[in-house]
Design a protein that fits this description.
Length: 340
């Protein structure tokens, strides 16, 4: 299996230490590269007080300069917010700078204030996204092309530089029937979210594979998860869980995108994030344990979803930072070696 991690780019509450956060992120990228991990992922959001990543391709270029072999992927960039020629140009530059190690993971986006700020009407976002994908595919192919769409018009031109990788790799996020269908129709890897249990994702994977068969495309599943891998059995509960349980609470209660499957009793008893115990959420949702336990769980997820690629977010918004996270990256790499 190909295993990696995606970076925490947030510094709550007001990004006072964002320079230090990025110094650590670049160090983590170096460690992941040295330890033989396969992927580093970067998300995208805008206008957040904690400076959550608004410029993932800029960060990807910095990571490319500090690493030699690890793949770099956006998990995910919000394709609807980009001018597609600019997106294609920047992606091609990062691919050249990394000597062919960059992958563009794209999603539709679902946060309406971001869409509004970038001038995209919610009712148009799916059609805008389709046109962005059309243009990125053509612009990264290295040939002259033109395009006439409802939202974008491209006169005949050729985008340079040409990416090292051709066809240029694009993954598509999908959390809905149209998203799954889009990835299958376009013959792109389906990037599965970290918010649902593995059991809940199985039907989406089945639907994706059936749609790929209909369209004559190749099915390829990639998976995002949250987790903490450590030789210390208490570290996940004592150091990691307090840093992410606010996220869990938010996705269950405030912005209900986590499902409550298997967790209804816990939620009924909880009055705040501080009341949430870690254990009920681990089995089918988080990668938590020592390297051997993590390897077993990764292998199980790979069998159930038919995936060879898993990226894990090791930190919550506020941490853990520093040495514990460096150890967790090394422990994740140890889990990968056990899978070999």
């Amino acid at each position: 299996m190909r295993i990696g991690f995606f970076l925490n780019t947030q510094d709550p509450p007001m990004a006072e230490r964002i320079v230090e956060v990025w110094e650590q992120n670049l160090r983590l990228a170096e460690i992941g590269d040295e330890e033989g991990l396969d992927w580093i992922g970067l998300g995208e959001h805008h206008f957040r007080d904690d400076a959550q990543m608004p410029a993932p391709l800029v960060a990807a270029a910095a990571i490319a300069a500090r690493t030699r072999r690890i793949g770099i992927v956006t998990t995910i960039s919000i394709g609807t917010l980009w001018q597609p020629l600019r997106l294609a140009e920047e992606a091609a530059v990062v691919d050249v700078l990394s000597a062919g190690r960059f992958t563009l993971g794209l999603g539709l986006g679902n946060y309406e204030p971001e869409l509004t700020a970038f001038g995209v009407a919610k009712r148009d976002q799916a059609r805008v996204f389709e046109e962005v994908l059309d243009i990125v595919d053509r612009a990264t192919a290295g040939e002259r092309f033109s395009y006439e769409g409802r939202f974008f018009r491209v006169p005949e031109l050729r985008v340079t530089p040409i990416p090292v990788q051709r066809p240029f790799p694009v993954w598509l996020g999908g959390m809905s029937a149209p998203g799954v269908e889009r990835a299958a129709r376009r013959g792109r890897p389906l990037l599965l979210d970290p918010l649902h249990t593995i059991d809940e994702l199985v039907p989406w994977v089945e639907r994706y594979r059936a749609a790929c068969a209909t369209h004559g495309t190749r099915a390829d599943v990639r998976l995002l998860r949250y987790g903490w891998v450590s030789e210390d059995p208490d570290e996940a509960r004592d150091a990691w869980w307090p840093m992410i349980r606010d996220n869990v609470w938010n996705y269950f209660v405030v912005v209900p995108r986590f499902s409550a499957e298997g967790s209804t009793g816990v939620l009924r008893e909880a009055r705040s994030a501080a009341d949430l115990p870690m254990e009920p959420f681990v089995a089918d949702r988080f990668l938590v344990g020592d390297p051997a336990e993590a390897a077993d769980r990764l292998a199980d997820w790979g069998r159930r979803l038919g995936t060879e690629d898993v990226l894990v977010k090791l930190e919550g918004e506020a941490g853990p930072r520093g040495e514990p996270t460096e150890r967790a990256v090394r422990a994740l790499a140890a889990a990968k070696r056990l899978l070999a």
